[in-house]
Amino acid sequence: MEFSYPIKRRKSRVVKVGDVLIGGGFPITIQSMTTTDTRDVEATIAQTKQLFDAGCDIVRISVLNHDAADRLADIRAQVSKPLVADIHFQYRLALQAIETGFDKIRINPGNIGAKWKVREVAKAAKDAEVPIRIGVNSGSLPKDLLEKYGHDDPQAFVQAALHEAEILEDMNFSDIVISVKSTNTVTAFGAYHLLAEKCDYPLHVGITEAGILETGTIKSAVGIGAILLTGIGDTIRVSLTADPIHEVRVARQILASCELKTEGVDIIACPTCGRCQIDLIPLAESISEKTKHIRTPLKVAVMGCVVNGPGEAAAADVGIAGGDGKGILIKKGQIVKRMAEADLEKSLLDEIEAMTGEKIPR
Predict the structure, then answer these.
(1) What is the pLDDT of residues 243-273, one digit of tens each?
(2) What is the pLDDT of residue 275?
(3) Residue 183 DSSP one-character state
(4) What is the DSSP letter of 203?
(5) Is 297 in contact with 261 (CB distance < 8 Å)?
(6) How far apart are CA 208 and CA 224, in angstroms?
């Protein structure tokens, strides 16, 4: 596999979701999904706003039934940012979401029912300029493909996705985003690469049902990160059995680690060893927690070793290193201040505030 740096991203067509552009080389967007009962309008709006505040670009809301669909107008009226309606089986719910002004719908045409129902949805979406995401995952593979390939063959995912896309294409609808999410990272890697070769639609990347916070974070980072580093992916969602706020934070870190998003503070901290002479772990965790709201790109080093600390901190925009009761503040590779170890955190946070212009709670 040929490697290029910066990462050469796959070229796809562009899909517009509200005021957000997906594909075409535009920045990779972060998505998440509410866990509230959509019929509870206040709770759904509150969680939606929390996700956007955490750095989400697009929020998806489940539309389980007509009672939920009847609440969409109230939600839309109070949320101006991009919203997606997640719908299965009932075509009228998709029509209602489009009519309400949702910015995208997530359906699988194959489970909507008769062709005339799919045609009505496609026509309504086209008239309203609302894109459709086709979502194939481990739990939605057609029976014939399961019998032919099994659950973990990438070909099953790709054939299912392209078949769903063809249904819409036959109805002259092409404003499509596709996902082929497996719970198996290797299967997902293969499926996205096969799909990328067979179409130019934007791809929504994720590892479905990744698991609880700790293990799901690792699995998602491995799977999504590996795919992104080969240039594939236009929008991502981390699927965790946890508060969805964590999905957004993990997604942001995955993009930052792949150098595909420069927003926010990137904490560099040494793993500690016998040379460490300060209580580094709580210090690094405290600085990370207090700066997580910052959007300005900044590389911050928190080091506890007099051997490698100063040199590694010099590679960051700003950093601290300390040991034996003393500490230094380093900015752009230069020592700008010496202080007692007890003043390390305050000195660093003061400097971050000055460099970003963003207030840090103490």
Answers:
(1) 999 999 999 999 999 989 888 888 888 787 7
(2) 66
(3) S
(4) B
(5) no
(6) 11
Per residue in 15-25, pLDDT (tens digit) is 999 999 999 99
- Answer yes or no: are the C-beta atoms of 209 and 135 closer than 8 Å: no
Q: For residue 309, is pLDDT > 80?
A: no
**What is the arithmetic mean of pLDDT over 292-314?**
80
Q: Quick check: helix, strand or coil at residue 188?
A: helix
| pTM exceeding the 0.70 threshold for the entire prediction | yes
Q: What is the DSSP letter of 319?
A: E
> Could you give all domains of the chain from N- to C-terminal order, each with its CATH number?
15-257 (3.20.20.20), 265-356 (3.30.413.10)
Q: What are the DSSP calls for 33-101, one per residue? A: E--S-TT-HHHHHHHHHHHHHTT-SEEEEE--SHHHHTTHHHHHHH--S-EEEE--S-HHHHHHHHHHT
Residue closest to 161 by CA, chosen among 205, 195, 130:
195
Structure tokens at 179: 């996902």
Nearest-angstrom CA–CA distance, 352 and 356: 6
Whether residue 3 is predicted with pLDDT greater than 80 in this model: the reply is no
